[in-house]
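Request: How about a record?
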Amino acid sequence: MASVAVHEDRSPRRRLWRSPRRVEEGELSPERAARRLAAWAEDAARQERWLASRGGGLEAPLLGAGGGILRLRDFLPLEAAENTLRVLEALPESVWSLSEQGGDANAAEHRFWSADVADVPQLAPLRGVFWRLLPTLRGEPTLPIFSCGRYGASDHIGRHNDEGDTPIFGPGNIFSRKVAAIWHLTREWQESEGGALVDLQPEGGGSISHVPIFNSLVVFEVPHWHAVSRVTAERYRYSIFGWWHQKKVAGGPG
């Protein structure tokens, strides 16, 4: 099994920028973006209308993918994507933690920056959104745990399958990752900039590289072998990523 173990390093080395991007005249402020995002995410009626317009959630299309990677363009509202990106761009450096690992039997080689969505008040309402997207899988409840992702120059993740167990609500409650998702949030990202999601387990064999497209949602069941190619751009690639977990049955598979 190869997954991604998080090793935090808050040192300033190799950071591309040391302060959030300034707000240009007439541009949406991160504070207003956060208010707009919360207004949408916390409005139950709007959430129900949105999910109804998308077929009721992710379970049916996910199971229909037959274990492959599901790519959904504009599945989430464009305004939600724009507001989330504005908040991400404005987060101070102190929020981001560096995860870096040289690679071993239990963790894939990787380097990128992350922050738990639950630790970013402006983005905390997204937790409810992800829960509504996949509240159950095959009749069992899920628990979504998501993070903000930031990749700069040379950041990447080597070959891994996302398998992992996490103790939640005490050491006796082990939850396993069952479904992974990445919500890509960088505008006009080009293939030449790297940072592609590389599917290492496509139907028919080989590998397929998927360029991160703004407001696209990528979903797949775990385990599934994949990687993220090295970023070559001198700008950040942003995303919201994470997993829906299910409680592990004692003595059973994860």
